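Key result, reporting period 2: structure in, sequence out.
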């Protein structure tokens, strides 16, 4: 095979197209749900009440962070659905850009564009989303402590950048293991058991 045909591999191009389609549907679909859930512009009461998974995700992140901080000995409270505050202190406001739907869309697009059974894809999708969710809970919890203790972010980077670095490192580790699991299953199917 020559170099050009290696680069313009049909399977690779098909994968990129599938990945791009899934990512755009998930990422821009989430932005559309956000836009339709906010009482302004093209507000949809039905979507706001029944399909606003971003609100559910934010609530789960803030409530779990609150409980995690309680385990660490910090008393916190949720004055509004966007906020998590330390008692007798300050806190954070979780806006849409903090929720992590971009990295979650990236992970989902990777899994959905790959080969594999739907059961395998669902397992990996949930595992990746859960891992990203846990990183976000840790980020929120550390940030609430940091703003109350006046800690500076390492290397002058903000918490969004640190979250993205941690989330994409995690995603690339998950990609490695997803790829290894596919190769492992392929190797096992090439060597049938002898009776």
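The corresponding designed sequence is given below.
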């Amino acid at each position: 095979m020559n170099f050009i045909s290696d680069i313009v591999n049909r399977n690779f191009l098909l994968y990129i197209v599938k990945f791009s389609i899934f990512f755009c549907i998930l990422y821009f679909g989430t932005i559309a749900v956000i836009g339709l859930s906010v009482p302004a512009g093209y507000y949809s009461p039905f979507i706001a009440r029944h399909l606003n998974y971003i609100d559910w995700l934010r609530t789960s992140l803030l409530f779990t962070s609150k409980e995690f901080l309680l385990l660490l000995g910090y008393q916190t409270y949720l004055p509004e659905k966007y906020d998590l505050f330390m008692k007798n202190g300050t806190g954070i406001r979780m806006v849409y850009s903090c929720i992590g739907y971009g990295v979650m869309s990236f992970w989902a697009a990777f899994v959905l564009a790959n080969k594999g059974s739907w059961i395998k894809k669902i397992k990996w999708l949930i595992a990746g989303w859960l891992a990203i969710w846990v990183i976000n809970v840790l980020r929120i919890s550390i940030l609430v402590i940091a703003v109350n203790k006046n800690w500076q972010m390492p290397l002058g980077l903000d918490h969004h950048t640190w979250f993205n670095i941690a989330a994409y490192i995690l995603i690339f580790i998950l990609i490695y293991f997803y790829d290894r699991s596919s190769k492992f299953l392929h190797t096992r199917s090439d060597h049938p058991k002898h009776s």
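The beta strands are 76-77, 83-86, 91-93. Residues 52-185 form one domain. This case is discussed further under Risks and Mitigation.
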